[in-house]
Amino acid sequence: MAGETPPSHRRDSIKQTVGNAAVQRRRQLAVSVAKERREAMFRTKRLCMEGISMNLEAATNGEKMIDEEPPVLESQTSKAVEELKLAVSFKGKDAVQNKVNALRELRRLLSRSGFPFVEVALKSGAIPLLAQCLSFGSEDEQVLEAAWCLTNIAAGTPEQTNALLPTLPLLIAHLGEKSSLSVSEQCAWALGNVAGESDELRDLLISQGALIPLAKMMVPDNGSTVRTAAWALSNLIKGPDPDAATELIKVDGVVDAILRHLKKSDIELATEVSWVVVYLSALSDVATSVLMRTDIVQILVDRLAASNNLQSIIPLLRSLGNLMSGDAYTTNVVLDPGHEITDSIIRSLSKCLKSEHRFLKKEAAWVLSNIAAGSVAHKQLICKSEAVSLLLQLLAGAPFDIKKEVAYVLGNLCVAPADGLGRPSLLLDHLVSFVRNGCLCGFIDLVSPADLEAARIGLHFIELVLRGMPNGEGQKLVEKAGGIDAIEQFQFHENDDLRMMAGLLVDSYFGETYGLDE
Amino acid sequence: MEWNPQTLQFLSQCFLDTLSPQPEPRRRAEKNLSEAADTPNYGLAVLRLVAEPSVDEQIRQSAAVNFKNHLKTRWVPSSATPISDAEKEQIKQLIVPLMLSASPKIQAQLSEALAVIGNHDFPKLWPALLPELKSNLETALNANDFASVNGILATVNSLFKKFRHQYKSDPILLDLKYCLDNFAAPLLSTVESISVKINAAAGSAATLRQLIEAQRLCCRIFYSLNYLDLPEFFEDNADKWMSQFKNYLTMRYPAVEDSGADGLALVDELRAAVCDNISHYMEKEEELFQKYLSGFVEAVWSLLVVASASPSRERLTVTAIKFLTIVSTSVHHALFAGDEILQQITQSIVIPNVMLRDEDEELFEMNYVEFIRRDMEGSDLDTRRRIACELLKGIAGNYKDKITERVSAQIHNCLALFVENPAANWKYKDCAIYLVVSLATKKAGGASVSTDLVDVESFFRSVIVPELQGQDVNAFPMLKAGALKFFTMFRVLIPKPIAMALLGDVVRFLSSDVNVVHSYAASCIEKLLLVKDNGVQSRYTSLDIGPILLVLMTNLFGALEKPESEENQYIMRCIMRVLQIADISPEVASPCITGLTTVLNRVCENPKNPVFNHCLFEAIATLVRRACEKNPSLVPAFETCLLPSLQMILAKEVTEFFPYAFQLLAQLVDLNRPPVPPHYMQIFDILLTPDLWDKSANVPALVRLLQSFLQQAPNELNRDGRLRNVLGIFNKLVSKPSTEEQGFHVLNPIIENLGYDVMAEYMSHIWSSLFTRLQNSKTPRLVRCLIILMSLFLVKHGIQTLIDSINSVQANLFHLILDQIWIPNLKTITGNTEVKLSAVASTKLLCESPLLLDPAAEKLWANLLDSIVTLLSQPEEERVEDEPEVPDFGEATGYQATFVRLHNAGKKEEDPLKEIRDSKHFSVALLANLSAQFRGRFPPIIARYVGPANQAALLQLCNSYNLTIA
């Protein structure tokens, strides 16, 4: 249907964009329809199974999970809600203790990992009762238990999470400095689950003022609270609206706190905080430029070098990649090719390329492609490292998505950035060395109608080979690797850009000598 | 336009009349409609007419087509007369229910119209659409109204297609997200509910057909939604989708499939759509797809073995083999590594699909153009023959030796079977040839190839040569075609002596009655003549074709007489190529020009095939150029032949051919010695008709012709006010950036060839129009053209004449132009002749003009010298920056013939300063001479004003000619 627009006659201009496109820094797109990969490894919503506070040991003591049958537990759950209802309406002596006991029983049932009986509790009318238990002036223990119940309800299905709506203002109110640490942490947990659910709930929480108190919770040095708050914040600011990220970076003490926590030996803490950095740097230019004025890149690179665990490496890679693609300063100044930090990050990325986790390989290649979009010296540095041989191997045999990322790195390594008005020029020794090592087939494989960006980078690379390989060797190499068939697939494609590129390549390199003299 | 009975009556009558066989009422109705289309609410009125049940179906259909076309040109706000927003809103409200209740033919038009709107408005500007379609879909499904279901699904399918050909970006992903949020879940539930209905409808063929079509549409929508990325919903529900997909690959629907070819095709279309989807998952989402892979490979395999053995089912076979090809190149290629599997693949899938079918033979006989397009020109990507070879290539990526071994064995087998009984088993030989050609790797320069499946030379000798030597040119034509194709494709690898020995045979096949055979023979000769050794040296020369030239040309022209080959482009291209290479004696030239003119006269009646026509004109141009260069006495004979045809093109206004005709005329004018014969002067007058110059495609060709006239007959310009007309054309061309350069091409020959006395009265006007243009838009090209023009003027009419004529526009203007235009931009001049001209003119100005030799002008003098040195000492690529071409959209309206340059009617560049051989030498000598006159005056000026690099360059120039500036 888009075929209505007439084909452009300006093929020549394509040639000039070929090189340009190959040296772009690439930001991850803000919109995604795919499953968030983070969720595959960490749940955005988390069930709270063990108490978060040490003060309550007495209360939780002696509670043993008994493996009862689900039907029994189901009736227990509705009974527990009934008990709570009675306790809430009871006004006499021990009223508080009654409520706490009822809440504790309900919480115990809602904390079972296999079958949390959230649905039953909701149907029995637990939410209004829990909201009542959160009311101001209530005992800490009561608020804590109620928030705990809500946390686990919110960890359920979207509808179950949405059930928390009436309780949100109260949960937010308990985040304040007047609450005890354990109460505010438990409330933060509940809110984190809510924020993880949907864009709409994030917007709602932000409009109700959840951001600032959560941000303030990150400032002190209390490990557990900071961890939970950071996790909740990373859920809250993850967009797509960038305003929350910008607002967060402006909260007093947050930047310092982030840097401080990232240096700590507590891996889980640092991981949660680096997820906050991921979203800050992905969404907000303001936040990115604030972070750039600190030594965050150094800290992240050091952490990356010391990390061996998949879950902590991913946010580090993602943050570094975001900082590089968001602001050329990172690559040009912080990661100067003469500094040890640059060698270090390339070593770490090479390590990731060797990892058995495909996600790590892909992310590492993406980060590397952004470094490779830097200066000629950056490109040389990468080419001298072990990364290149790993990249060439991956291009030959890795699954499609990794191949595509790797292709961006190798493509970037072959083209020097444009200086001034000039066109970007070829780095011939890199190109020749890659081609001699057989990378052309990998690029040609990418030239398939299944993925247009991959096809584009493939065609760009073919163009480089045709233009750049010495002694006109490019033509023969492309032929031999079956490149002509690959290009021809796009000669009548509906994507204007690719169609023109394919046409240009065929015309200038494989066209018939037409109408020429003898 | 208001909706009332009058409007209804008016529109009905118009649409009825558009169907009239009489041209008069039809034209009037078309005119009325196109005028009415400009009134507000016209589209809405037509749509209402389409909806009016009382109106005849035929009229409504025609109105629906008109409605769709109306939207196509006017929906986009940037169009010349866009539909108003209010009208658009009403159209959007009406169209969906209307489409759903319409008869099939009208529904198709409205669905297309809806897609036109959707292209621009969906989803952001049409938020109501998708929810409306969704709820209608649900209602229709519940009511078992499958016609509506399919109408809705078809619409959704065309709306979502845009996700298949755009790059990933935030805006497109937002649109996709919107569509997913609204339609992903309903799509799955639709598929599942239709699946249930299919099982229930097992016996009812009519319902089943609709349901299967619905399911196919759902698969296509699935493809669009999954193209850019794997959406969360589809990942979460992969099991459900995959089980549906597998179902359609494995189930049979006898009620439909066994009801005839179209029933089977319908089910196969669904299966093909499934194959496209699983291919996409295999290619891009292999991680997710892994666990379903072996099940699908098995299902596709079984389907293929059955389909490969049956006569039709091309589309299913192609998509199914494509899936296996993708698997073979993926990380799971080991699935195909086993010897037994490989054997089965070659035996049960590849060979049966490569073997010729009845359809292939039919195409070969009935539509030779399409057959060649697929067979020879690579448009066969979607044929079973080709895709079967792609599968082999895919597996060969990892198991090359095994595949080579097996395919070689198969080729051997096929040939052995052929030998047993050539007449009955000829298709086996064709199969063998096809395998070798298709599995070869393509090489640059058109269609040349190489292979390591067989030894090319020995295969050629034993398999191909016997076919080419067959005496009956019409026997076993497909084998002959295959042999000629093989020869053509492997032409580079066939040694010259072997090829030469067969040339006569190939020429013989030009006389075959079979279109494909004589086309392939022509193509083979044409391509052979293009073979170059070491990339430069032509392998076959005039000496090689000389002995057979007469019979070759006779057979080529003979082939153009065969039915359906009257405009055979392969033949004409071969004629063109032979004429470019052969030694053309008068004995050959004369029948050729007669033959070509006859063809030209015929195609003028109704120009159809642009490639054929281009080759025809190129062939004529070549013949004229090469024959007349060698033998000028041929010119009159050529004129006698060609001029009437060219005049006819002009007289009958065959506008497509104007650019060609002008180029040929220019060529003929050039060949004449002055004075130009009177019959050309009529053409000169036609040439000055302003209308001709309005079409941009004509302009380069007209300029070319005008140049020829101006050079050959400058004095004719003086008569009858022609010069004024020519200058009018110059003015017109130079006023637009897109044609400014052409304007100078008109002016330069006047300046060069006419005496100053003739043009003096016009000069002031010419300069002032040029300088006005310069003030309004100073493009680098304009500046360059101007410097060249002034230089030409200077060398032809003298320095003082130039200065005076420019200053007559305004006092001291020349000084200003020199300082601000000439000197700073001299270094941007490119092209040998142009550099020489401007260097010589500038140096003359420097050394011979009192204006510059005035001591007060020493800085100006030095600057001019500096520019001259830059121009002379630096190579072009260092002096000149590439400038981006600014596209000119101003006149991209209406139909236009395109200008295609005829290589052989080109003009040789004339050097206006033939007497000066080396412009560097000339310049330095003039300067040295000057300095000798004013000894001691210039070195200090040079030292003071000229840049150090240019001082050094100047010194070097002096030294190389042994001259000094003292």
Please tell me about this protein's structure.
The complex is a heterodimer of chains A (518) and B (966). Chain A has 518 residues and is mostly helical. Chain A is built from 32 helices and no strands. Chain B is globular and about 110 Å long. Chain B is mostly helical and 966 residues long. In chain B, the strands form 2 sheets. Chain B has a two-stranded antiparallel ribbon with strand order 1-2. A two-stranded antiparallel ribbon of chain B has the order 3-4. The interface between A and B is large, with 53 and 62 residues.
Strand order of the largest sheet of chain B: 1-2
Strand content of chain A: under 5%
Low-pLDDT ranges of chain B: 883-897
Number of helices of chain B: 48
The secondary structure category of chain B is: mainly alpha
Beta-strand portion of chain B reads under 5%
Q: Report the principal-axis shape of chain B.
A: globular
Which class do the helix and strand fractions of chain A yield? mainly alpha
Strand count, sense and barrel status of the largest sheet of chain A are: none
Using only C-alpha atoms, the radius of gyration of chain B works out to 36 Å
Quick one: how many beta strands of chain B?
Answer: 4
Mean pLDDT reading of chain B: 89
Concise structural overview:
The complex is a heterodimer of chains A (518) and B (966). Chain A is mainly alpha-helical and 518 residues long.
Write the layout of secondary structure elements.
The complex is a heterodimer of chains A (518) and B (966).
Chain A: H1 12-22, H2 37-41, H3 57-60, H4 70-89, H5 95-110, H6 118-123, H7 126-133, H8 140-154, H9 158-162, H10 168-173, H11 181-195, H12 199-207, H13 211-217, H14 223-236, H15 243-250, H16 254-262, H17 267-283, H18 285-292, H19 296-306, H20 310-326, H21 328-334, H22 340-354, H23 358-372, H24 376-384, H25 387-397, H26 400-413, H27 428-436, H28 440-446, H29 452-468, H30 473-480, H31 483-488, H32 496-510
Helix pairs in contact in A: 1-29, 4-5, 4-7, 5-8, 7-8, 8-11, 11-14, 13-14, 14-17, 15-17, 15-18, 17-18, 17-20, 19-20, 19-22, 20-21, 20-23, 22-23, 22-25, 23-26, 25-26, 26-29, 28-29, 29-30, 29-32
Chain B: H1 5-18, H2 23-36, H3 42-51, H4 57-74, H5 85-101, H6 104-121, H7 129-142, H8 146-160, H9 170-200, H10 205-227, H11 232-236, H12 238-250, H13 254-257, H14 261-284, H15 286-308, H16 314-329, H17 339-354, H18 358-366, H19 368-375, H20 384-396, H21 400-420, H22 426-439, E1 441-442, E2 449-450, H23 456-468, H24 477-489, H25 496-509, H26 515-528, E3 532-533, E4 537-538, H27 542-545, H28 549-559, H29 569-581, H30 586-605, H31 610-630, H32 635-651, H33 658-671, H34 678-687, H35 699-712, H36 722-734, H37 740-753, H38 756-776, H39 780-797, H40 799-807, H41 813-825, H42 832-848, H43 850-853, H44 858-873, H45 876-879, H46 919-933, H47 938-945, H48 948-960
Antiparallel strand pairs in B: 1-2, 3-4
